[in-house]
Amino acid sequence: MTNPPDLPRAPYARRFTHLIDPSGTVVKIYEVTDVATHPQAVLDDIRRLQGAPA
Question: What pLDDT does residue 52 have?
């Protein structure tokens, strides 16, 4: 399947990360805007949700 030639295209791919708790609930959705700081932000949120200081 191909897209029609007149379909507008995004200037870049959008990336998202989903933080899911052990029961399967999506706790947070991140739109990745800075790949250098994103991993630490996710790890900080995981630690916070686990009750540990970030």
Answer: 77
